Amino acid sequence: MASEYLEHKLTLLPDAPGCYLMKNAAGHIIYVGKAKNLKNRVRSYFKSSHTGKVAKMVEEVADFETIVTSTNKESFLLEITLIQKHQPYFNIKLKRGTGYPYIKITKERDPQIKITGQIKNDGADYFGPYPNVYAAEETVHFIQKVYPLRRCNGYQGRPCLYYHIGQCLGACFKDVPPSVYEAQIKRIKSFLNGNTGQIKAELTRKMNQAAASLEFERAAELRDQLHYIEVTVEKQKIISNDKTPRDVINYYFDKGWLSLQIFFIRQARLMKREKRLFPVVDSASEELTSFILQFYQRKNNILPKELLLPKGLPNKELAAILGIPVRTPQRGEKVHLLEMAEENARLSLNEKFRLLEMDKQKTTGAMTEITNALGLPTAHKIEAFDHSHIQGADPVSAMVVFVDGEPAKKLYRKYKLTTVINHADETASTKEVIRRRYSRLLKENKPLPDMIMMDGGAIQMDAVKDVLENELGLQIPVVGMVKNDKHRTADLLFGPNDEHVDLNPRSQGFYLVQRIQDEVHRFAITFHRRVHTKHSLSSRLDEIKGVGPRTRTKLLKAFGSIDKIAEASVDEIHALGINEKTAQLIKVSLQKRAAVNRGSSHD
């Protein structure tokens, strides 16, 4: 139900197109949407019941803003700008670049053919996208053998190796007429657009000639090139009667989830398919429209010559913004392509639902098993702690968080212990980290966990309970995770007397405890190694006269390790801006230490 403040704002909404920005209590924008009628759309969030992601978003809304636009097209453009600027939590957000490989024919006096992921407005010709770099590389290698351009770095007064093997037109030692490049590029473009008949006929003729002349190695090479065409270019079923580069996008919507399928049709074949699954806030058509605009406005993305979409989308506005034809076919093979995309979207979403159900049984079911075994009410959030040190040196603690049986890595925390006198003192280490963690949560008025787990026995548990109950006045269940003599998860400790609680070793609850114990141990060990390595490297450098914090940072940043610094020459060290005398001293000191270490290792 909307607050009184929101109710007042809802009455002031305009009957106009535009964008709305939902904000949480901290003033952060959590969702951006567009509407033909702002009054109707925004009011619908607060005057109707919702489920899933919509309900979660509405619960967090404490305020909203609206921006009125003159036309519906302007609201589309403004929405994408606002999403990219604010990156709201509840919106579909896409990365800037596509990450797809393209084949590029450069625009220069002596053109080359390359693989690139960067699309520039440089007059070059781009072909793709290709499903992966390997597929693009295979195609480029084939073209370089059959239709070579320039393979070398340019004029050098003598033929390059590639010219000798027939993969360069000779820009390395002579002027190649532009007409020769133009004819070759015309053949390459024809091949990349799916016209394979001409090149197959030409290769077959050359292969037969080579065989008749007893040039069997050359004939075998031409045979392999023909085989490449058959197994890579022609192995995909032709799904279109024309060679127009087009994308086909369709969706399936159910239970608040949007499943998208994008078919990249190139060379009359399905070159690549991409699928996306999102929990959404707005209607399926609105979310799909937002996705399409973001998808095609990213960097390193070549627009197709045509975009096919299902009915119900604003094709006219999308075409005006993207600058390409956007159509909804009514009959024929294009309708079949849309139906195929929709069916694949449906199958992907159904698979997602099945996996979610299985995960729910494994995670929330595992949490229920643990709380039932301990005699506790239902729990959602567990925080687990572990310590790490080497003979008391560089003591650290680490905390991992599991919510409904899944790791919430953004909530993990690391602690360098500072108040512990005896660094191997488990009680003191535990008290410090628990005191720091939960006094801060209380001070910031943040939610507490439903359960605390300690990787250890009664000593750690008693220390936790002492701080929580006697210092902070908190009543949070504390559970110990016990390991057997093989250092593997065995059972739990719980209760006033720290009694052993057995779990079925084949149950999901046991597996969850095992995951928590392994994860917190891994996190603590990884953190400790990083701290210890940094300290040991720093201390060894600090022993050298003339090396202060700034010089030490330069050395470690440039070389990464003591061994690499020791291997570096005095000139390389001096090149970092370190005076020559100090550079010589660093070199001699580290080499001397390395020699001592080698000698002690042989004793």
UniProtKB/TrEMBL annotation:
Signal peptide range: none
Localization (cell): Cytoplasm
Domain UVR: 197-232
Residue intervals of the GIY-YIG domain: 15-92
UniProt xrefs under InterPro entries: GIY-YIG_endonuc, GIY-YIG_endonuc_sf, GIY-YIG_UvrC_Cho, RuvA_2-like, UVR_dom, UVR_dom_sf, UvrABC_protein_C, UvrC
Domain UvrC family homology region profile: residue ranges: 248-468
Chief localisation class: cytoplasm
Keywords of this entry: Cytoplasm, DNA damage, DNA excision, DNA repair, Excision nuclease, SOS response
Alphabetized PROSITE patterns for the sequence: GIY_YIG, UVR, UVRC
Keyword DNA repair set for record: yes
PANTHER family to which the protein is assigned, alphabetical: UVRABC SYSTEM PROTEIN C, UVRC/OXIDOREDUCTASE
Family matches, as NCBIfam families: uvrC
Family: Belongs to the UvrC family.
Subunit annotation: Interacts with UvrB in an incision complex.
Role noted for this protein: The UvrABC repair system catalyzes the recognition and processing of DNA lesions. UvrC both incises the 5' and 3' sides of the lesion. The N-terminal half is responsible for the 3' incision and the C-terminal half is responsible for the 5' incision.
Protein name: UvrABC system protein C
UniProt gene name: uvrC
